[in-house]
Amino acid sequence: MRHLYLNGAWVPSTSGEGIDIVDPATEEIVDRVPAGTPTDVEAAVAAAQAAFAAWAATPPADRAEILAAAARLLRDRAERVARVIATDLGAPYAKALKIHTLGPADVLDFYARTAQAHDGEAGRVGNSRVLKEPVGVVGTITPWNYPLHQVVCKVAPALAAGCTVVLKPSEVAPLAAYELADVFDAVGLPPGVFNLVSGRGEVVGEAIATHPGVDMVSFTGSTRAGRRVGALAAETVKRVALELGGKSANIVLPDADLKAAVKAGVANAFVNSGQSCSAWSRMIVHRDQYDEAVRLAVATAAEYPLGGPFDEGARLGPLVSKEQRDRVVRYINRGHEEGARLVCGGTERPFPKGFFVEPTIFAGVAPGMVIEQEEIFGPVLCIVPYLREEEAVAIANGTPYGLAGAVWSASEERAVAVARRLRTGQVAINGGRFNPLAPFGGYKQSGLGRELGDYGFQEFLELKSLQF
Ligand code: NAD
């Protein structure tokens, strides 16, 4: 059994109970982490509180140096960390390395530079000098789908701002968070500045959200759990940041390059086996091009062979857990019942072992169907027809979510005009690639606040006005 990382040391949990970590490709238990307790959270928060004043007062250049050293060490250990992520998440090793490990190293570097440049001054307003100060102790609660990226998106800006942190990673894929704790330990982050308490959401997560010593809770996960965290945090008037679910729409306008739009749309829907909050899980296509789009999508799906993370040629891994596969299978069955037309994939198990789901596409999906409204979080793409642009926009905006999306058109101006009407935090125009410096976050029930880049940094700062 692993330990918790509290006040600069690896210590056993007070619970003695563990959570098995399962390799989703083999279904074998590969590790065991502590099921932490509220008492463990108490100790972590006490350590973070005790460390706060000194860390907040540490010169920005010194904070920057520690973050930059962490980025360097993470890169040095990248192959090992990627193997860990490939094993507990199931992501193909090449993706585990490039997206899941080296991506977060870049984010750490960005926030090292941000820390360096941050002087805590926000300028003058009349007779006031405005300061930007760290918000305090930050509780961070993260999901399994990008198990290092989601952690680093919160922890790096929080530390750069001068906050101290208590992290609860997902109990499903927590091993990358352990690697990060080890990196921070090795580069000499002072004790108490970063603390890790593994465990279940209802126990450790809720203890963090309710703890009066936690000044801010930054949560990424489902809308269901985010709502609960927000309600609990309200009792002690914490600052709350929520990065929640999505059901993003990929609108293909009639003048778009259909082939490019469909190919990129399928790739986006299936990346990380569809377990991405910002996945374009609905493709909205004009009726005149609908049949051709479905044909192209099915042909593209065939280019995504399934396999274990270390299998040569596999582009999609398993889903993270049996629960996740069962959930996705239930949605596929639901799509059938609702009368949508399965054009590829389905619920057949492709291999005797592993939580795999074939890349699946539904055509004939109507707005309002459950598979069109709810986040499935698996490799399932719904293709929805429209007649007029108005209708495409209404379909795109017609869910409780608003995280991401895409618009394709031969006219960039027309695409931007449609993008401006989407109630969503990000829109890719003609396949514009993900920008890790741009603000990321949701409208509506996809969340509160923004992560990444300078906007993500500002979330961890309080404003103070000094009047003269
Ligand atoms: P989840 O909500 O089940 O769990 C997320 C985290 O919250 C885990 O650490 C879990 O232990 C904890 N948790 C669960 N219940 C809790 C409670 N009552 N109180 C406190 N903490 C609790 O989500 P998941 O299955 O791990 O991840 C998938 C979800 O995350 C999807 O809905 C996805 O869209 C969302 N997500 C959003 C973003 C984003 O940036 N918007 C990014 C990645 C994932």
UniProtKB/TrEMBL annotation:
InterPro entries: Ald_DH/histidinol_DH, Ald_DH_C, Ald_DH_CS_CYS, Ald_DH_CS_GLU, Ald_DH_N, Aldehyde_DH_dom. Its EC number is 1.2.1.3. Gene3D superfamilies: Aldehyde Dehydrogenase, Chain A, domain 1 (3.40.605.10), Aldehyde Dehydrogenase, Chain A, domain 2 (3.40.309.10). One of its GO terms (molecular function) is aldehyde dehydrogenase (NAD+) activity. PROSITE patterns: ALDEHYDE_DEHYDR_CYS, ALDEHYDE_DEHYDR_GLU. Residues 10-465 form the Aldehyde dehydrogenase domain. Keywords: Oxidoreductase. The active site is at E243. Pfam families: Aldedh (PF00171). It comes from the Bacteria. It catalyses: an aldehyde + NAD(+) + H2O = a carboxylate + NADH + 2 H(+). Belongs to the aldehyde dehydrogenase family. PANTHER family: ALDEHYDE DEHYDROGENASE, ALDEHYDE DEHYDROGENASE-RELATED. This is aldehyde dehydrogenase (NAD(+)). It comes from Sinosporangium album. The lineage of its organism: Bacteria, Bacillati, Actinomycetota, Actinomycetes, Streptosporangiales.
